[in-house]
């Protein structure tokens, strides 16, 4: 009996020891598992607000076609833009049919049919677009990336038509069922009747017929420190080495990962080349992983919009464009600011670049400025178009860092077919 009791006690001690070892190895009191998968990033100190992917997906502009070749444009965060987009988010689109762009008279639709054109720039995967719009699952185009949605009226038809344009270029999907009446579309179009008139240039871009007013701002700024980013990006910052380069930049490395900080421009570049798994990439999953990574390593100090680098051609590159109010902030070779860039493979980040500077909006000093329009603007664009085809024109902010903070200067940004961006004051 005594021996049997000793055996039971021994078994209990062994089991208890194993349980204790498990908790010591895998958990810490009040924390999650210490051992993480390759795509589960460690939560670090709070640096900036978090966001979700739904808040980062929206059109970069909304072109209102009023018939008789009359047009206007609403940009993000403007009153009519927000009103129209919020209504469209609640409408459903279903029963898609694949069509060829060559079979659709886009010039006639643009000039004669009242409608709303949503531009998504370089494109958004359908699976992500479904997170912000009621697009019913459809195997026909589920794997596509959409760069435009065009909702328009046809005379004598009570229902509106909806076209979804693929980034492939010549492929269009028409929704057989669109939860929008012709009256709904006309009501939205009527918002543009009293707005700035725009003229189409070969259907590629639009020129305002009057000057465009913008807010110029000088905004107070602060910056993350190199030590903050070091603690955020390395699993064990205590084993990293600090190397100072001749150009003034600093490099932190643990022999596998590296963090380079260019102090003059307050720009950081993180690299983890060892984190490249094999297998097929999915751009939608890469975007979700990118949002999660930024949430935990710097956050979103400002308003951003998803912008896929290269139109989604490179399935691994994801960019987020920063906005101030209604317009984007341009990144320039002289001053890198306005973009968060990531390269991912199967949800694992291999490179991460961003500015360490973040703005303090409550410290902004503002004044109104005007951008040229009409014939004055056409004259400025003429010489540019003779050198390279213009594919887009839009108001933007040119950032400059001064001793008073971040100066945002209103400019016209001209996108060329070559991929270059030219700034017009």
UniProtKB/TrEMBL annotation:
Gene3D superfamilies: YycH protein, domain 2. Residues 3-416 form the Regulatory protein YycH domain. Pfam families: YycH. It comes from Paenibacillus crassostreae. This is Regulatory protein YycH domain-containing protein. It comes from the Bacteria.
